[in-house]
Predict the 3D structure of the following.
Amino acid sequence: MGEMPIPPFERFYHEHRSAVLSVLRRRLGSQRAEDAYQETFLRALRAYDRLRDGRNLRAWVLTIAERVAIDEQRRARGQAELPEQEAWDARPAFAQLEHLVSQLPPTERAAVVLRYGYDLDYERIGAALGSGAEAARQAASSGVRRLRRKEVT
Amino acid sequence: MTVSSDLDGRFRQAAAQAGLLDAAFDLADSPIGTLLVAVSERGLCQISFDPDEGLDRLSRTLGRRVLRVPRRLERPRRQLDEYFDGRRTAFDLPMDVRRLPAFQRRVLEELARVSFGEVTTYGQLAARLGRPTAARAVGGALNRNPIPIVLPCHRVIGANGRLVGYAGGLERKRALLRLEGVAA
């Protein structure tokens, strides 16, 4: 089983920083995007030496950005009106899932999108969400159950 | 979407201040080409003549959380500039060689005693280590010197006076010796 080597953080950062900023600006507006940008890459840096495979690093870091944006919106809730949560990524995988998951609670939504939209394993999803593999699995399966119930009604 | 240099710089600085990096590096222009210069928390840990290859090596040896943080490299860069301008003959920098094998560390310690403008041979260096027959092993240890220029392996030549070899290429070895006033 060939695993893709993980690049030095500098190369990873250089390659994905524009995409991360772009996502965060759409989610939060340019002002708040700057703090979120820094937080996203600090979280990525904290998790970086635990990564085992260099595939899907774009999806991985966008997940972290998504999580940071969720946290930021939670914090700001009540203080200001939330910006519209537009599609944060033009990838087809996400686009197909988006309308289904948009009503889910944030953690479940992120877990479902990452698991079924990006095919990430639970360990990596857990790392991105700041929890563990088991918590990520539970969030994804609880999200799926919620979606099923909705489909039935 | 372009990341402004201000935002970029703030992230780099924050990453270093949070203590999240295995090593910080910067690129330095010099008369012998662009150098990658890297420090760990403990000190100078790498100088490379090929920045791309050097970044990969840094990531393999120190850890993959390596980031360009120019502010962390100000002191070694300044001293290198002074050296190349002919205004400095000795470096005053903490160094981090703890990951190297014991024999190589001893060779590099002995090497550090060879001063600016002097040359020695692999055999003489081996003798100074009390291992007079180990010239070849000394050569191998020098060839893998992670901190060339500052740890002056360019000052070690063959017994016959030939330059013999240099990880950065003989042209660079010659240029460094000339800079130090050694006919080479």
User: Anything to note?
Assistant: The domain at 9-152 of chain A is CATH 1.20.140 (Butyryl-CoA Dehydrogenase, subunit A; domain 3). Chain A is about 70% helix and 0% strand. The CA atoms of residues 147 and 153 of chain A lie 10 Å apart.
